[in-house]
Amino acid sequence: MAKPHHKPATRKPRADAQRNRERILEVAKEAFTRSGGEVSLDDIAKRAKVGPGTLYRHFPTRGALLEAVYRTEVEKLALAHHEYARTMPPVEALRAWMFHFVDYIATKQVIAPALNSLIMDTSVLYESSGALIKGAVSALVQRAIKSGDVRLDLDPIDYLRALVGVSNVASAPNWPESAKRLVDILISGSRPEPAAKTRVKSES
Fold first, then answer.
1. What's the confidence (pLDDT) of residue 72?
2. What is the pTM for the complete model shown?
3. What residue numbers bound the domain in which 192 lies?
4. Do the Cβ atoms of 171 and 113 come closer than 8 Å?
5. How far apart are CA 191 and CA 174, in angstroms?
6. Which of 29, 61, 155, 172 is most buried when burial is the number of CB atoms within 10 A of its CB?
7. Residues 67 and 128 grouped into a single domain
8. What CATH code is carried by the domain that includes residue 44?
9. Would residue 189 count as lying in a domain?
10. How far apart (Å, rounded) are the C-alpha atoms in residues 101 and 77?
11. What is the pLDDT of residues 19-78, one digit of tens each?
12. Phi, psi (deg, nearest 5) at residue 148
């Protein structure tokens, strides 16, 4: 009688291998942000305290490493809204997340040219990241609307458009500081009239 065939279980990455991968990504983000897409991969391996073979085993090409850095930053940004919403009042959570979004834009501005040159089609990558980001800010805005802290007619994407617009026209290296000041202006302008705020709270 033939023995039943058992499909081998998918092996989870070892803890040390996962730590190596995370350390490589963190060092790579700092290196790419500081020096652009042409930074030495061997130098990244050295700073991450791993051998070149370990780096190339996780990320066989420069494009694969850049894409992983970008995806990781998007995932951190998208997931951060859960932590902010859990630990902060609605408006403060929204404000903290938008500050995080400014930092994400700054990183993307540096690595996007290299991504575009090394990856044949970035449209799917950017489309999926855009959906994650829009979902996060929409959840935070809806929470602030429900608490009566921002206007009912606020479009969450308007926040993103304003901050991306500032980054696109800014030439000074300190534009993120200006963008973060804009966050407070945007939130102040989003406050409802006192009567409207009272109405929202009475309906909730």
1. 93
2. 0.78
3. 62-203
4. no
5. 28
6. 29
7. yes
8. 1.10.10.60
9. yes
10. 7
11. 999 999 999 998 888 877 778 899 999 999 999 999 999 999 988 999 999 999 999 999
12. 85, 15
